[in-house]
Amino acid sequence: MHYYQFNIGDYLSHTKHLDLMEDLAYRRLLDLYYLHERPLNSGIASVARQIGMRDQETEVKTVLEEFFDLSDDGWINQRADKEIKHFHSKIDQASRAGKASAERRMSARSTDVQLTNNQEPITNNQLKPSLCPPDGELESAKKLPGCDHKAVIELYHQNLPTMRRVEVWNETRAGYLRQRWREVAAELAQAQDITASDVLNWWSEFFQSVGKSRFLTGRVNSKDGRAFVADLEWILKPSNFAKIVEGKYHGNN
Question: What are 115's strand-pairing partners?
Fold first, then answer.
């Protein structure tokens, strides 16, 4: 997890007795725990080094013994484990709901057929969808679901584990994602009312498509022997996003 809820009042009520170094140690321990989603190393010195506090082993030990439990696998935090489990349950539920909704839409459209000039039938499923209505303007009459930044980033990490991970989420990147989310949502909403789960399902399939591109995933070397690897910010930029949707990076290379 790269994001987790932080209740200031709850935190202060449990940590007001800590001194500055102990408070810093606790915050860094929580960040490390949520980031890797696994027990911390049982060795105090190793954990202190991981959080950049090798000279404060005493404070690190104090915090671990008060807020964590030492198990066979290492130091665990039951509250954090509960939050991590809830987060993944939410993602899994959204993914299942989105896939079910997509299957219903695909089933409803399976009998809808267009004829080309030479009278050969082409089903709607064979057509590559655009990401904007025919008039070039985004759908504004329907209320679109709000952008779920955390869920999209998590889907990016799940479907593209070899790509560069998102460590910083600034306003520039958030702006790119909000724009792309709205474009996708507006396109999907033309057929029927949608929820955030429908949009998340689209993103899951989109990232799976990105993973099939040898160029985007760094499996093609340039003349100088170096390989390009895309990251989420690069993917979300308007021109790059459009080219990916159009399949321009999915050729023989």
Answer: 121
Those residues with Cβ within 8 angstroms of residue 82's Cβ, 6 or more apart along the chain or in another chain: none
The β-bridge partners of 114 are 122
Structure tokens at 160: 């593209």
Q: Provide the pLDDT confidence category of residue 208 given band limits of 50, 70 and 90.
A: very high
Largest CA distance in the chain: 79
Q: Which of 55, 39, 37 has the alpha carbon at shortest distance from 1? A: 37
Among 239, 18, 206, 15, which Cα is nearest to 102's?
A: 206
What are the CA-CA distances from residue 26 to residues 36, 48, 144 (Å)?
16, 11, 39
Q: How far is CA 140 from CA 136, 144, 187, 238, in A?
A: 12, 8, 11, 20
Mean pLDDT score, 209-221 = 88
| Contacts of the segment 213-218: beta carbons below 8 A, 24+ positions apart | 213/244, 213/249, 213/250, 214/253, 215/249, 215/253, 216/244, 216/249, 217/160, 217/162, 217/163, 218/162
| 42's tokens | 């049982």
pLDDT in tens, 37-49: 999 998 999 999 9
Mean pLDDT check: name the lowest of 78-82, 92-96, 149-153.
92-96
* pLDDT reading at 224 higher than 90: no
Helix (H) or strand (E) holding 24: helix 20-36
